[in-house]
Amino acid sequence: MKQANSRKRPSAHQGGKDPKRQNVLKETPKRKSVPVTATQDEIEESGDESSQSYQEEEEELVDEMEKATVHEASGSKGAAFESHKAQKELLAQRKASKPNAEMVTEAKKLWNSARQRNLSKQEREVICKKLSDTVRGKIAEIASKHDSSRIIQTLVKYGRQQERDLVASELKGHYKALAQSKYSK
Question: Using CB atoms within 10 A of its CB, is residue 166 exposed (0-12), middle (13-18) or buried (19+)?
Fold first, then answer.
């Protein structure tokens, strides 16, 4: 069944070797009872007592880790929910600590509705007007942020001439910095 020109290995059911990952499932060899960094003199002085205590400590650690994983697995649904909830709260705090956070979140909501393709021209003009009123005075700051620069792009793309003039007037004097910025091109 093997083709002469094929570079792929045949699978196990085609008479080929077992998959390479199978060696991961094999038991790992036991660790040395003495650290590798120990010199031969230290090994001879310590004798078998230290190696036995080292092995006992290692076994205790493994037992504790197994107990911890069993405990986590039993209550994992509630723990995962609590962890996710805490992560969301932390993310909300980080976003709120940024400058212009409330204005940016409001502008993002308007931007999301303005960029939809199934809007009529009149609806899009109304949304772009609200969007321009929301970001007025802060366009230069918004244009250089990675998550809010799309707002200005949408305003230029779908807005009327008044909104485009507003963007151009607020960005006047910032063109060099905008051309060098990663997000405001």
Answer: buried
Q: Rounded to whole angstroms, what are the CA distances from 51 to 37, 40, 62, 65?
A: 14, 14, 17, 21
pTM of the model: 0.51
Give residue 49's region: left, alpha or beta (phi > 0; psi -120 to 50): alpha
Tens digits of per-residue pLDDT, 23-79?
555 566 666 666 666 666 665 665 555 455 556 766 776 666 666 655 555 556 778
The predicted-structure confidence for 136-180, as pLDDT tens digits, reads as follows 999 988 888 888 889 999 999 999 999 999 999 999 988 888 888
Q: Following CA atoms 64, 69, 75, 78 in sequence, which dihedral angle do they give, to the nearest 10 degrees?
A: 120
CB 139 within 8 A of CB 132: no
SS (H, E, C) 27-85: CCCCCCCCCCCCCHHHHHHHHHHHHHHHHHHHHHHHHHHHHHHHHHHHCHHHHHHHHHH
d(CA 35, CA 172): 66
- Measured distance CA(168)–CA(27) in Å, rounded: 67
